[in-house]
Predict the 3D structure of the following.
Amino acid sequence: MIVALISGRGSNLAALLDAGLPVGAVISNRADAKGLELARARGVEAIAVEHRAYATREVFEEALRARIDGFAPRLVLLAGFMRILTAGFVERYRGRMLNIHPSLLPAFPGLDTHARALAAGVKIHGCSVHFVTAQLDHGPIVIQAAVPVLPDDTAASLAARVLRQEHVIYPRAARWFLDGRLVIGSGVVIVKGSNAGSDAQLVLGPD
Ligand code: GAR
């Protein structure tokens, strides 16, 4: 089963549930995250481990780790989880923790990706699912989706176009993992059984 970590709205979580993925628990570092309500409404156990209640990042992560490991998940998914994780925490879940990031990595790691993409004048933008490593937003890439940047775009319109593709690629990547199709070699992910990466790299139209 999957444990998903969230901080907010939970639309990627909804996409994972809609795709029928076995999400057994959702944990948020914020008790007011809308995604917790969404999980409960769908009968999924939803837990808050509030980072603010802990004196240090390490103590927070120890509490988080205990809750995650209580479910013995095969896969941990960061689905809009907005806390930086320490190298020690990341190491514990090496090779079984994925993140979705709203840019075509390695471009635009970090925050405000859509505004930064517009400011840079890129003509193609998108999203990436990657294995989590200690370096923020830099782990081996599983799948990406690309969308055009249109002349009238605002950060909000571009974010909405990218988000639609996040909801396509994250369930696909999670399914590949659970089916044992993802192999990491030399920092690069190979999707077993895909032909020349045609289903591992999508280039999609405006909608
Ligand atoms: C998504 O766009 C996700 O890619 C992004 O947060 C949003 C969460 O939305 N994640 C990051 O920026 C991680 N660095 P959601 O709660 O509706 O899934």
About this structure: Helices lie at 11-18, 34-41, 57-70, 87-92, 113-120, 155-178. Residues 6, 8-12, 35, 79-80, 100-102, 163, 166 surround glycinamide ribonucleotide (CB under 6 Å).
